[in-house]
Specification:
The structure holds 2 protein chains of 2 kinds. By secondary structure, chain A is mostly helical. Chain A is about 70% helix and about 5% strand. A two-stranded antiparallel sheet of chain A has the order 1-2. A two-stranded antiparallel ribbon of chain A has the order 3-4. Chain A has a two-stranded antiparallel ribbon with strand order 5-6. Chain B has helices spanning about 5-30, 45-55, 55-90, 95-100, 105, 110-125, 135-160, 160-170, 175-205, 205-210, 220-230, 235-260. Classes of the chains: A mainly alpha, B mainly alpha.
């Protein structure tokens, strides 16, 4: 640790004071900015979540737990688990999106890594282009693709996947299609960099020792790509759980997600204390989920968290 | 070299089609002469001509570019300093403050967006600062960009051999000389990568902009969102096609720039 006085680091001997004054100049401004404009606001909505909604959309004292009890279902109209259900649905959506993306990213990452050197960059760039293309554009396009009169919808009806009366969009399925399409590159990229580092001699050794293809993959290959997989799943799960644009554009009124609920409270109902409570609970659940996940994935996920 | 098997080719091909289907549809429909979207009615370029006449789309483009350039410039300076400082110098509570950098990575952007909205609203009612608009959006963008720049710069510095800087000092260079002559050139690729990431994050951002903007300050993502909510129109497809084109040119350009350093293709 550089803390020890007089230790030489990077060819320089710095006192504690030297460390402090240089920290103030280098780290200082950035830390100040992020503290003032991000940490303080997050703490502030934590406070707001315990305040009472005012008459004309503002908020103020007295302090109350009402927003949290209302969230838990003790509302005006008796007991109703609407909000816990919304959070649950969002978590399922986040986990489901991460799961489907993982299934799709595995073949893609191995495909790119297995390409001859000349085409590898092209194959990778083809994943990067959607990654850098605006998410809104890629999302609303599914409204066109899944519209009632589109060929895809006709095909789905012909295959019996859906009936002519029930549209593909808006629906929960449309949300999942849009989510997986939008977030797939987020998982392919970290996974690909893990696949590139695979030591194939381990797989060959396993195979020579008589393991079948499935066992080789499960015991000799998968453990080697776990770091990329762990990082990619987090990169998909967090934004997918809080998404409000994709459910908003592709889902109907029946598929309200956490993001939509927060947006409604802040912009339409103008009940900021309740909106803050939902945001705070959602954030807490995502962080706890991450923490549990980091523990489970142990050392392998260590580099990310 | 391992061969790519036929089933892997097929699956990957389908996945590429899946990723590109929305982009292709937007491009094709931007040339559709049907007024309200819907089925194909014939080829036209009239929607592109219409874009030039619509002042709101031009204003939104200007806002988006100003926002991205200004926020990226400030965030790159602050983020680079932060990444450098965190990798080199100690201060009390450093571990805790290092966690700050991960906030924008680990919390959903909608939570960040409403928190900033509530904060700007509070400060403006208490002190009269911050009218919601381009300025508040810029501040908000810088806030989520700084950590990303710092993370990229720091990981570049961590991977560097300390012996290089030690050698500079041993040869009599001052701290300042070592920084500008040795450290900075070595960390520059990280700084550029961080700046590029920050720039794209700003261009792509919808949620934070949507909550921290005010009347009159619209960006392209906000414009597209509000238009699509009213129903997809061909001129929005034309606008989106141009944005897609810019992303393709940007991505391919950056990939080509990075290529000489890894001639064998990574």
């Amino acid at each position: 640790m550089a803390k020890k006085k007089g230790e030489v680091k990077f060819g320089e001997q710095l006192t504690v004071g030297g460390h402090l004054s240089r920290s103030v100049v280098t780290s200082g401004p950035g830390i100040f900015w992020v503290t003032v404009f991000l940490l303080v606001p997050l703490v502030w909505i934590g406070v707001v979540s315990f305040l009472t909604r005012g008459e004309v959309g503002g908020y103020g004292k007295p302090f109350t737990f009402e927003n949290y009890t209302r969230f838990a279902g003790f509302g005006f109209f008796g007991f109703d688990l609407l909000y816990p259900q919304i959070i649950f649905r969002s978590l399922v959506l986040g986990a489901g999106t991460a799961g489907f993306c993982m299934l799709a990213a595995l073949p893609l990452a191995f495909f790119i890594a297995g390409m001859p050197a000349r085409y590898k960059n092209t194959a990778l760039t083809l994943v990067l282009i959607p990654f850098w293309t605006n998410l809104l554009i890629r999302t609303y396009a599914w409204q066109i693709i899944l519209a009632p009169e589109s060929p895809i919808t006709h095909l789905a009806v012909a295959l019996g996947l859906t009936t002519a009366g029930s549209p593909l969009y808006p629906s929960a399925m449309a949300i999942y299609i849009g989510m997986v399409c939008d977030y797939l590159p987020f998982l392919v990229l970290p996974l690909y960099s893990s696949v590139e580092k695979i030591d194939w001699s381990i797989a060959e050794a396993a195979s020579d020792l008589g393991a079948d293809k499935l066992r080789v993959f499960w015991h000799a290959i998968l453990p080697q790509v776990t770091p990329g997989l762990v990082a990619g799943i987090v990169l998909v799960f967090i934004p997918a759980t809080g998404q409000f644009v994709i459910p908003d554009l592709l889902g109907g009124a029946k598929t309200v997600m956490m993001g939509n609920a927060i947006q409604q409270q802040f912009l339409q109902s103008r009940d900021w204390p309740f909106g803050s409570a939902i945001a705070f609970i959602g954030m807490g659940i995502v962080l706890v989920g991450l923490w549990v996940y980091a523990r489970f994935s142990g050392e392998k996920g260590g580099e990310l968290l | 070299m391992r061969r790519v098997s036929l089933p892997l080719w097929l699956i990957s091909g389908l996945l590429y089609i899946f990723m590109y289907a929305p982009i292709a549809v937007v491009i094709v429909f931007s040339f559709n002469s049907a007024k309200h979207g819907g089925p194909w009615m014939g080829f036209t370029t009239q929607w592109y001509g219409k874009l030039l006449d619509s002042s709101d789309k031009i204003a939104a483009t200007e806002n988006t570019i100003i926002l991205a350039v200004v926020s990226t410039a400030i965030a790159t300076v602050l983020g680079t300093l932060l990444g450098y400082g965190l990798s080199r110098y100690w201060f009390p509570g450093k571990k805790l403050f290092s966690l700050l950098m991960y906030i924008p990575v680990v919390i959903p952007d909608i939570v960040m967006a409403v928190a900033m909205l509530a904060f700007f609203d509070l400060v403006s009612s208490l002190l009269g600062w911050f009218n919601m608009g381009l300025t508040t959006m810029t501040i908000a963008h810088i806030t989520f960009q700084i950590p990303f720049v710092a993370i990229v710069v720091r990981s570049r510095l961590v991977g560097m051999d300390p012996a290089i800087e030690e050698a500079a000092h041993d040869l009599g260079a001052s701290t300042w000389q070592t920084f500008w002559g040795v450290t900075f050139p070595l960390m520059l690729p990280g700084v550029l990568a961080g700046a590029m990431l920050a720039f794209t994050l700003s261009l792509d951002d919808f949620v934070v902009s949507f909550f921290t903007t005010g009347p009159g300050a619209t960006t392209l993502p906000i414009l597209i969102y509000s238009s699509v909510k009213r129903g997809i129109t061909p001129d929005i497809n034309a606008l989106s096609t141009l944005i897609v084109l810019a992303s393709v040119v940007g991505t391919v350009g950056v990939t080509l720039l990075q290529r000489p350093r890894q001639p064998s293709g990574g």
